[in-house]
Request: fold
Amino acid sequence: MNKLNVVGLGYIGLPTGLMFAANGVEVVGTDLNKELVETLNNKKLTFEEKGLRELFERALDKGIQFSNNLIKTDRYIITVPTPYIKENKKIEAKYVTAAVSQVFDICEKGAVVVIESTISPGTIDKFVRPLANDKGLIIGKDVHLAHAPERIIPGNMVFELENNSRTIGADSRKVAEEVRSWYKSFCKGDIVLTDIKTAEMSKVVENTFRDINIAFANELAKICDREGMNVYELINIANKHPRVNILQPGPGVGGHCISVDPWFLVGDYPDIVNIILAARHVNDGMPDYVIQRMGGIMREKGIENISEVGLYGLTYKENVDDLRESPTLQMLERFEKYFVKGINVFDPMVKENKVAGQTQDFDEFLEKSKFIVVLVGHQHLKDNLNLFKNKIILDTRNIFEACDKVYKL
Ligand code: SAJ
Reply:
C-alpha cells in the first residue's frame, strides 16, 4: 500500500495523521504553511491538546513525514479548514476544492480521496464532483471519493479519535469498506458505512442536536431566573429520568462547529426549519442576556465603573485555547458598539493579549475587578477558587457554591 497523505495539518489533520502513523500506517502530512511544517519538522507541536505530545512522539518514532509539497500517492485524507462566513452564515469551501483539485492533478489512477473537513450537506455534489469532470477524470473509475466527517471534541481529541464511532460515506460499498479498513488501524468504535450525502448530513445533524439541547437549557435558565429557582438543580433532577438528558446552560454557544453547522440547515431549508432556527436565536442571544444580568447586578451592588468589572475566560469553552465564535468576544463586540470601555479581561489559556483590557497578570486582574463575570470554567479557575473569596461573582458556568455574593445564570 502507498503512503497516506493527510492534507491540512490543523486541529483535525494533525492528530489524525499522527494517529495513523503511530499505528503503523506510512503517513505524509502536507500543509501549505511553511512555518507550520518547519515547526513540526523541528519536533515541536503547533497547538496543545491532552495526549497529543505523546502521540506525536510515537508518530515520529514510526517515521511520519511533514511536507509543503503535495506528493503523489493513492490515498488522501483532506482536513483543510472550512472557515465560517458570518455575513451569509455559510462555510467557505474554497480550501477543500483547492486541495481536492491539486490532488486530482497528481494522484495515482484509482486513488481514493477522503474528505474529513466539515462541509455543508451537498458540498461534494455541488463543488467537488464537478472538479473531476473539469479534469476529465471519471469518479468511480479514475478517482474515488468518500466523506468521513470528524467527530472529535476539542479538549479530549486524542481519546475520542481512538474511541468514537465514525461514519464513512462513499459512492460504493467497496470504496466505503476500503476506507473503513484504513480507519480500523486505530479506531476502536463502530465504523458505519453510508452514502456521501447522508454522511455530510449526519455531521451537521449531530451538532444541531447539541445546539438545540443547549438552547433548551438556556431557556430553562431564563425561566428559573424569573421564578427564583436553581436551574442546575432542576436539570439535575430532570436528568435522573432514564430518558431525559438536558445539557447545561451557559453564556452562549461558541466554537467553529455547534454555532455554525445548524445555519447550513437554516440556509438550505428555510421553509421547514423552526426549532433549529429558534435554538440558534436563543443561543446567539445569550451574550446579550449575560450583559443584561451584569447590568442588574451592578445596579444592585452599586458598582458604577466598568473598570471595576472583570471577565474571566475568553475562549469558547474550558481548557482550550480556541477563541472562535467565543461568547466573551461577542460580549466585547457589544461593549465596543456602545462605547463601553475599560472592562478587564483574563484568560489563562490565551497567552497573548487579543483584546483591549486583557492582562496576562492574574493578580492584577483580581486586584482591579470587584465584580467578576465567569464565562469559562477553566481548570485554572477551579484551582484558584479561594482567590475569588471577596468578589461579587456572576457565575455562568456553575463553578462556585451558591452564596449571597455569587449570582448564577
Ligand atoms: N456548551 C454549553 N452547554 C453544554 C455544552 C456546551 O453551553 O452543556 C457550549 C460550550 O461552552 C461551547 C459550545 O457549547 O461554547 C460548544 O462546545 P462543545 O463542547 O459542546 O462542542 P465543540 O464545539 O467543542 O465540539 C463539537 C462536538 N459535537 C458534538 O458533541 C455533537 C464534537 O464532537 C465535534 O467533533 C465538533 O463539535 C466539531 O468539530 O464539529
About this structure: The first strand starts at residue 4 and ends at 7. The mean pLDDT is 96. The domain at 211-408 is CATH 3.40.50.720 (Rossmann fold).
